[in-house]
Amino acid sequence: AELAAVVRTFERFSEPFNLVTDSAYVAGMVARAEHSALKEISNKALFELLSKLIYAVSRREQPFFVMHVRLHTDLPGIIAEGNSHADSLAAAPIGLCNLPDLFQQAKLSHQMFHQNVPGLVKQFHLKHDQAKAIVATCPKCQKSALPSLGVGINP
To answer: Is 93 a member of any domain?
Structure first.
């Protein structure tokens, strides 16, 4: 199921992305897929998925990052929470998992990776005000935000 979810990710998203998986098998397959040759195997469904993965990774123009996390850890944090959510999506049939709209995807991504406003605008094709609202409502980003002095004020 996770390999199928990863293949769908590569097929759907042409922009740069980070891929976090609890499957060492899948992380290893993605890392070795570019310019690989696949021999015929008896499991036709697996052969089809691997063929699609190799094709998608080899022809990809934008960068991606693959990260492996330990399976079902009790560690707190957004990566563990995201991994549990991804497990539930990977188990769902292909037609049943609906992706949120771009604004919601940007909010979810920011909760995990804390991109700045220009990064959100570029990655999710948001308006500047939308990206600014996402960053402004993030409690973790507010701790590190510098106070605004306003335009034309010389400290």
So the answer is: yes
